[in-house]
Amino acid sequence: MQDLEVTKISYSAISTYINCPRQYWFRYIKGIKSPPRIVQIEGKAHHTALEINNLSKRDKSKDLHPSKLTEIFMEEFREQSKYKDARWTKGETENLIFKRAKVFHVRYISDIAEEIYPETIEEPFEKNINVDGKNVNLRGVIDITHGGIITDYKTKGLWGYKKAQKDIGTD
Length: 171
Fold this sequence. Notes:
With 171 residues, this protein is of the alpha+beta class.
């Protein structure tokens, strides 16, 4: 591949390039995006539910009930997955995803959320950095800060998600 003149970069772009330079080329240079996989839609729906929970906790000092998180998740998931080009993983069903989400949200509220007191939520950032003598604008969004800690929600990596899969026998 030829050298690229990059002036703006994000975590997603860097991650895509590390995993597959050709995919980076198609997505970020040519502007061709592949249809979302259902697991990506699931992750985005969890992200939305956790963001709304964090806003509630910051503004009202109270986590939402797990069933409310699942309700928010289901609404977001259905909205995002209604497009016919979403790519489903073999064996995945909406019912299985909702069952896993319900267990995950119970575990998240009981085991993780009680330690989180949000300071900032969905905070955009930009930082100019020097890469090989060139000025590059690094940009992104910090999901949440709490207790001076920056947290980026990647739901598949959260303890509660892995436990939810095991609890319903899909690990």
